[in-house]
Specification:
The protein is α+β, with helices and mostly antiparallel strands. Among the domains are: 220 residues, no CATH class; 92 residues, no CATH class. Helix content is 41%, strand content 15%. The chain contains 15 helices and 19 strands. The strands form 6 sheets. An 8-stranded mixed beta sheet has the order 3-4-5-1-7-12-11-10. A hairpin with a 5-residue loop joins strand 3 and strand 4. The structure holds adenosine-5'-triphosphate and magnesium ion. Magnesium ion binds next to strand 5. The site of adenosine-5'-triphosphate has 20 residues, from strand 1 and strand 7. It comes from Nesterenkonia flava.
Length: 495
């Protein structure tokens, strides 16, 4: 596929720490957090003007699903916009909690395990052609994903268990995966989910749902994560020979690899050969480089992706993690934790280090340790703050742009409406439900015509500036794009 849309869903960890006593129970806290969302959309499961979805499931992990993005930089900005959005909701929740006579701070963590060992996800969605041979896809994709954690894992301080000392692992999610490929997401936690819900024209496309990833704090890590996976998919789709890396036991392998930070752990390829994760990744990287040399780069960041991929393999292989400790989440956090351990003369089993691990993922721009390192210039970045602010209120140039425009316009006119990834409906015109099955199409005459039924948009709608939107008194992502300049149904003139 020449172009691909990608979207990422992130579930966040949530906690309340009052100055004394126990915090609010998780479900109550989640309800506080989502109150502005419910006030905005009368539901805790809504689409918002930047084209994304905010969602509170039965549990208490708020979820943000980015809009479908056709450009990697848009995806990274949309992902970071979700963090910023969650932060603004947390600030508002703290204010409301205080107004109700409680105190304490609200913590939102972009990680994948809480202190009780529960896991929550960061799911990737890739548009793929329906013609992709699923057996071939899984034969290459599974080994890639099982070992991808050495490139883009978020790192984890693992406390001691009966049979293992405390140590540092590549991944947060690895221990929580139970199956290679399956159609269930929650019960069996597969690495790749095959539920067939393409949110596109089912005759031509599928949506590949990757469940295995750790959430990324570093945008450089994100670039490598989505960029390398996209390249592997392109190779599969184009049918070039990639070699046989199929694993004998993917679930055994994913844990084994995660817990050996030396990178020496081997996995068995079906048929007998043993390989380290680095050897396997290097094998795929060599093929990806050859593929790019032969077919050309399909976007401007391909060289950077390949360079990061290579450098990270090198760092794991040589043990010289300094090569990537500004770029790759597990290595950035490992260095941070090691610095603290050295300063205080404590070992991996010290609870303080688990706290540092958690605090790395705190989305609070002042309190979070990743953000602290960013302010000190200790980590690299591939997107800037303005792009993130922009992405909070602006959909990417895909079908999401139509979704955002539809929502913002209907809201300005006070017209009841419903949208999802594909459907657009004004409640009082149910027969005109519009389906947008092409995720790339960001213009559509049917949407324009439907919105025209609401009024003369060019004379009646005024777009709000960023400053005006910030002054609306709600989290930025939930502000109105348009202001209605004149009443729509004017009184009939008096004769
Ligand atoms: N055609 C598509 N191809 C790839 N990704 C898509 C496509 N359409 C939408 N997406 C992305 O897929 C994700 C869907 O998120 P959503 O949480 O709604 O789905 P889900 O995980 O299947 O549902 P749930 O979380 O309710 O189980 C979003 O990030 C969105 O941008
Ligand atoms: Mg989801």
């Amino acid at each position: 596929m020449d172009r691909r849309v990608i979207g990422v869903e992130t579930e966040f960890g949530l906690a309340h720490r009052p100055s004394s006593g126990r915090g609010l129970p998780p479900d109550e806290l989640a309800r506080y957090l989502f109150r502005p969302v419910v006030e905005y959309g009368r539901s805790s499961n809504i689409f918002i003007p930047n084209g994304s979805r905010l969602y509170l499931d039965v549990g208490s992990h708020p979820e943000y699903a980015t809009a479908e993005c056709a450009d990697l930089m848009d995806l990274l900005a949309a992902d970071r916009a979700g963090e910023q959005m969650m932060h603004e909701l947390a600030v508002e929740a703290e204010r409301r909690i205080a107004a109700d006579g409680f105190d304490g701070q609200v913590y939102l963590l972009k990680n994948n395990v809480d202190s009780a060992g529960n896991s929550y996800g960061s799911h990737e969605n890739y548009l793929i052609p329906r013609t992709t041979h699923f057996r071939r896809l899984s034969g290459i994709l599974l080994p890639f994903l099982v070992t991808r954690q050495i490139l883009v894992g978020a790192g984890r301080v693992v406390p001691a268990t009966e049979d293992r000392e405390a140590h540092y692992a590549f991944s947060q999610r690895a221990d929580h995966m139970w199956e290679g490929i399956s159609s269930a997401t929650t019960r069996s936690r597969p690495i790749v989910n095959t539920r067939d819900e393409p949110h596109a024209d089912a005759a031509h496309h599928r949506r590949l749902h990757v469940i295995v990833g750790d959430s990324s704090m570093s945008s450089t890590t994100s670039l490598l994560r989505y960029g390398s996976t996209d390249l592997v998919l392109r190779m599969v789709e184009s049918g070039v020979p990639i070699g046989d890396f199929e694993l004998e036991n993917p679930i055994g392998a994913i844990r084994h690899v995660s817990h050996d930070i030396t990178g020496k752990a081997t996995v068995r390829i079906r048929g007998g050969e043993e390989m380290t994760a680095v050897q396997l990744q290097r094998g795929l990287l060599q093929r990806a480089k050859r593929f790019v040399a032969e077919h050309g780069a399909h976007h401007e960041h391909v060289d950077r992706v390949l360079e990061l991929w290579e450098r990270t393999c090198e760092a794991v292989e040589t043990g010289d993690h300094g090569l990537i400790d500004q770029d790759i989440d597990w290595a950035i956090k490992k260095r941070l934790v090691e610095d603290v351990a050295a300063k205080h003369g404590i070992g991996w089993d010290h609870p303080r280090l688990e706290q540092i691990d958690m605090a790395y993922h705190d989305v609070h721009p002042q309190r979070g340790l990743f953000h602290l390192l960013a302010r000190r210039g200790r980590v690299s970045s591939v997107i800037d703050d303005d792009a993130v602010t922009h992405a909070m209120i602006t959909p990417p140039a895909t079908r999401a742009a139509l979704r955002g425009e539809f929502l913002s316009t209907a809201r300005a006119y006070g017209a009841e409406h419903t949208v999802d990834w594909v459907h657009h409906k004004l409640t009082d015109r149910p027969l005109d439900t519009i389906m947008l099955k092409d995720p790339f199409a960001h213009q559509d005459e049917r949407i324009e015509a439907l919105l025209d039924t609401l009024g003369d948009r060019s004379s009646q709608l005024q777009e709000q500036s960023l400053r005006q939107r910030r002054a609306q008194g709600v989290p930025l992502a939930l502000t109105e794009k348009y202001h209605l300049t004149a009443p729509v149904h004017a009184e009939p003139p008096l004769i």
